[in-house]
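Lab notes, practical 5.
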Amino acid sequence: MLAMNFRGPKRVRASQMPMPEIKHPEDAIVRVTRSCICGSDLHLYNGNVPDTRVGTTFGHEFTGIVEEIGSEVTKLKVGDHVLVPFNIACGRCVFCKQGMFGNCHESNPQATAVGGIFGYSHTAGGYHGGQAEYARVPYANVGPTVIPPGMDPDDAVLLTDVVPTGYQAAEMAGIQPGDTVVVFGAGPVGIMAARCAWLFGAGRVIVIDHIEYRLEFVRNYAKCEAYNFRELEDPVLFIKKTTDWIGADVCIDAVGAEAAGNAMQTITGRKLLLQAGSATAVHWAINAVRKGGVVSIVGVYGPTDNLIPIGNVLNKGLTIRANQASVKRLLPRLIEHVQNGVIDPKALITHRFPLEEVADGYRIFSAKLDNCIKPVLIPPSAGM
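Output from the prediction step:
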């Protein structure tokens, strides 16, 4: 089959790879119909996540047709068109029973933090992802969800990560009616977090980024304020000024390991890899939020240390909430929001690439070319 093949930092290509096989009675094999390139895939692509091995197939956002099921799969049948949450979750461990599907202990038992994730290095279990014609889906009774009749597959594929991650960013923030919410990052997840902040009652939503076309997009899509931090003397000072010197009620880090804006963080976190990515957005969030405020983190960092101002967290009495989104827990509500027109996920998709052109897709998305917000890959066997 054709699949994305990681050959080292900034080197990916489409190659012929072995077909996936049923390895466990609860497995399913799906023929991929849509697969996205995610902003967090760029952390792998650029070499910021440890133990990303040559020969890995990325892709944790995908939909597909069920082609084969294991002997113990009872919730799916061959021919079902499913969306596959990026979390690989058993549904029965102590964390899954709490709805913490992003922290499943069985799917990645040697890790002390994250559960299994499709196509996201061996630190997340070493599973191949969905940027391929076919994918093996473990625990097929738990994660894969049949796409409701009439739902656009472009909407469905964004329900595998972008929509639930943006929604959970706002949910974890504990937004109260009238709150001022600042989102750092105008990538797809930041855009969705800004949109979802209104659903929780925000009174004002501000987005900070430095890519003008993304700022314009989020202004239109999320109906929020958006500012280029390169045009501000200091984004933290700006937020303080615009909130009567109190600070925002909530700050959301939707950037993660590749944040720009601070030379020291960029050098130590992105160039020399002395910390788990540039922590610039975390710094800004901690310093821009008010005393007693909430910092919500969904931006991805590696599993080693970061330089963050923990003393400010203590002295300001902040609450920090962070996690991988628990997609399965959120899906019923988000499917309803999509069906009712409350959220329009597919509006984020700006580019479609044949899987054969995956290298161009990564290059364009990574370099922020051609006003790219969200790219989708279409395998040659997709059939739709």
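Observations recorded by the TA: The chain has a mean pLDDT of 95. The radius of gyration is 20 Å.
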